Amino acid sequence: KPLLIGITGGIGSGKSTVARVFSILGIPIYFADERAKWLMENNSNLVKEIKNAFGTESYLPDGRLNRKFLSEEVFGHPEKTKTINSLVHPAVKKDFEAWTNSQHTPYILKEAALLFETGSYVELDKIITVTSPIKVRINRVLMRDPHRSEEQLHAIIDQQMPDEEKTSKSDYVIKNVDNKLLIPQVLQLHEKLLKLAKEN
Ligand code: ATP
């Protein structure tokens, strides 16, 4: 079984970009947030549970998730957020385990925005946090998603766990800052993780 490495970071930190560099090195990546969205539409058991909890309106007639309805349902209702998480997280956990068992590399990466917040870090052997200054993150996301506003991004960042707390809970930190080359940092960490996997 491969070593299980988590990779996380706040919005715009560059965690997906960093994960893609590992992927070029041949490391399989489980993109947890995207996979969760996929499971919410394609795992029939999960679809049934969501419909039972939130009503049939949670899906559009074509079977796609009614994101607008669901986000309005949970907005400002922490108990409803808890309910949806209690349905989605176990499904992702199971799916991740099955995926992991079919991988044959020394280690794999699980990329997720909320690795600490969801508690999924406890299933992982090591955690990488990608950090960059808030100003840089906001500028990057505004370039990527021009429909977003700076205020909206500040609001999202305020809701996320602060970088200092994430890094203190992590085993490795990648600083994705413009004056610090990214690829050499990834290569160095890749070497370390291969060595660690060998020792295990
Ligand atoms: P989100 O949580 O929003 O998914 P993320 O942490 O996965 O964000 P990315 O999507 O990897 O972040 O990066 C945000 C944007 O910044 C992307 O458009 C990406 O191409 C760009 N970016 C990331 N790192 C760098 C870098 N070192 N130099 C230049 N651009 C970068």
From TrEMBL:
Pathway in which the depicted protein is active: Cofactor biosynthesis; coenzyme A biosynthesis; CoA from (R)-pantothenate: step 5/5
Keyword ATP-binding: yes
InterPro entries (UniProt xref): Depp_CoAkinase, P-loop_NTPase
Recorded catalytic activity of this chain's protein: 3'-dephospho-CoA + ATP = ADP + CoA + H(+)
Free-text function comment from the UniProt entry: Catalyzes the phosphorylation of the 3'-hydroxyl group of dephosphocoenzyme A to form coenzyme A.
An annotated Gene Ontology molecular function: kinase activity
Binding site for ATP: G12, S13, G14, K15, S16, T17
Gene3D superfamilies: P-loop containing nucleotide triphosphate hydrolases (3.40.50.300)
Record family assignment: Belongs to the CoaE family.
Keyword DNA-binding (UniProt): no
Pfam family membership, one: CoaE
The EC number(s) this enzyme carries: 2.7.1.24
Localisation: Cytoplasm
Top-tier EC class: transferase
TM segment ranges: none
Protein's recorded name: Dephospho-CoA kinase
Keywords: ATP-binding, Coenzyme A biosynthesis, Cytoplasm, Kinase, Nucleotide-binding, Transferase
